[in-house]
Amino acid sequence: MAGVAVRCRYVGVEEETGAELFYYFVESERSPGTDPLLLWLTGGPRCSVIMGLAFEIGPLKFVLAPYSGGLPELVYNPYSWTKWFTDHPQFLSNPFYIGGDSYAGKVIPLIAQGISEDKEERAHDMVMMSSPPHRTKLGYMVGNPITDPKFDENYKVPSAHGFGIISDEIYETAVKNCKGDYVNHVSEMCVEVLHTINNFWMNNNMTRKALGIKEGTTSEWVQCNIGLPYTYEIPSSIPYHLNLTTRGYRALVYRFTIEYTKNMTFATVKGVGHTAPEYRPKECFVMAQRWLNNEPL
């Protein structure tokens, strides 16, 4: 896309098996030499990175309406955010942030803590932060994050009542019958035609060739690969949030309406779905830009 530097490549993560991760790198349109560097991880788990690139924070977006029956048109998105450092040493001095939404809320604090510990104790093999701990260049942001099932599930009903979504009568009935132990499985009908468009575009050979995806790596692209082996070994990310923020690292959690002390900021983006930047790209862009610049939200 003209005017936007985008690279699609692989980075090796496991020498013994030769495992690689496919990634998109979008250079800052403002000042790539000094602007903060953001690593964005897709939630799910097992969901494709194309969802974040094309629907949330990437430099392009789909024109879905009106739908003509063919491939959706790709247009410029003016509100995109944007062993890797070994290949890109020019970004070593940039402030580094990790971001993501949904299930990424589980793994991002864990990754951030791992980087921070390496930063403070020794040079990291992949991410080398040369500044001393008191000059923090590491932070993270998570949107509608999964943190801990006990907290996430059991606070849905009180939150719905607090926001005026459910009446006092319904809330009191829930409290009486559930006694604070809620299992709230929300099931909404998905827009089938949208999923059809997504799957068709990403499974098109021209699309795969343009992105540089290796032939034979996957037979069919799906938004979230439920059959992919995955071990749920992080029961809660709350201890990592507490550890990082009390040690001086900044964090942005955009979902709630209050601001929390100890370097953690909470924000609400109104009128959005689960993946906020997909629904309100301009507002989310401004929110992230202000936070990265240490400006009031």
UniProtKB/TrEMBL annotation:
UniProt entry tagged with the keyword Acyltransferase: no
Superkingdom, taxonomy of origin: Eukaryota
Keyword Transport: no
Gene Ontology terms, MF aspect: acyltransferase activity, transferring groups other than amino-acyl groups; serine-type carboxypeptidase activity
UniProt keyword annotations, A-Z: Carboxypeptidase, Hydrolase, Protease
GO BP terms in the entry: proteolysis; secondary metabolic process
Protein family per UniProt: Belongs to the peptidase S10 family.
Name of the protein described by the UniProt record: Serine carboxypeptidase-like 5
Organism encoding this protein: Triticum urartu
Phylogenetic lineage: Eukaryota, Viridiplantae, Streptophyta, Embryophyta, Tracheophyta
